[in-house]
Amino acid sequence: MGRLLLLLFLCQFASSVKHSLKFFFCQTSGVQNIPEFVVVGLVDGVQKSYYDSRTERPEPKTEWMKKLMKDDPQHLEWYTARSLHVQHLFKHYIENLRKRFNQTEVLPSVSLLQKSLSSPVSCHATGFYPDRGLMFWRKDGEELHEGVDPGEILPNNDGTFQMSIDLNVSSVTPEDWERYDCVFQLFGVNEDITTKLDKTLIRTNWGKPAHIIPTAVVLAIVLIAAVAAVAVVAYKRKKAPANASEQSETLNPQT
């Protein structure tokens, strides 16, 4: 029994102490005031080193790490070389992912929508990426802040985004429509997408231009009137022989 206890006692002291070493990598693109590549090293959850693409030089964060890099210059050189290698590797991976998914500055399709003739005209953009877009109405080149109702940026099922902004056209005279336009700006793209306020371009819920609706109503009325006229003429012709026969019998009664 004494040997067994001694063995357990020795095993307790001989057991190894576990430590954790973790590295966190971060790659960005086009973000202001943030390095494109950052590496943070942690030992047992405590930060020991820091590296970014601006300085391209490891920075020790603990006293023992500072002493290690000072006493062992080769370790500092190795750390620097490995960080540079991973930096270029991550940049290559990000570029390949962009090409594969084709998700870099995808331009939208912009259309004008209107539920009814008295409803606001909605400028709707869909299918753009990333979700950093700006949309507004202009009059004579000046951005409008009154009579407009901007909407939020919403996600689509395919990973792209959509947004819209309404314009109240109840007080806009027909001759002033050409003075208005809708502008869409996408982050990272220099050219704006401009759409003129044009009645012939407006789509209703059924996908037809708004100016077709009154024309269709007029055509329907004309068609109904024509059918009614034909029915009246046919009815009179059908009644005419019977009336003539009755008049003949009245004028020439049988004796």
UniProtKB/TrEMBL annotation:
Give the CC-aspect GO terms: external side of plasma membrane; extracellular space
Q: Which GO terms describe its biological process?
A: immune response
Classification via PANTHER family: MHC CLASS I ANTIGEN TRANSCRIPT VARIANT 1-RELATED (PTHR16675:SF237), MHC CLASS I-RELATED (PTHR16675)
Name recorded for this polypeptide = Major histocompatibility complex class I-related gene protein-like isoform X2
- Superkingdom of this entry's organism? Eukaryota
Q: Where is the Ig-like domain?
A: 108-194
Alphabetized UniProt keyword annotations? Glycoprotein, Membrane, Signal, Transmembrane, Transmembrane helix
* Listed Pfam families: C1-set, MHC_I
Q: Which InterPro entries match?
A: Ig-like_dom, Ig-like_dom_sf, Ig-like_fold, Ig_C1-set, MHC_class-I_related, MHC_I-like_Ag-recog, MHC_I-like_Ag-recog_sf, MHC_I/II-like_Ag-recog
| Organism, as annotated | Pundamilia nyererei
- Which ranges does the record mark as transmembrane? 212-235
**Listed PROSITE patterns:** IG_LIKE
Residue span of the signal peptide, if any? 1-16
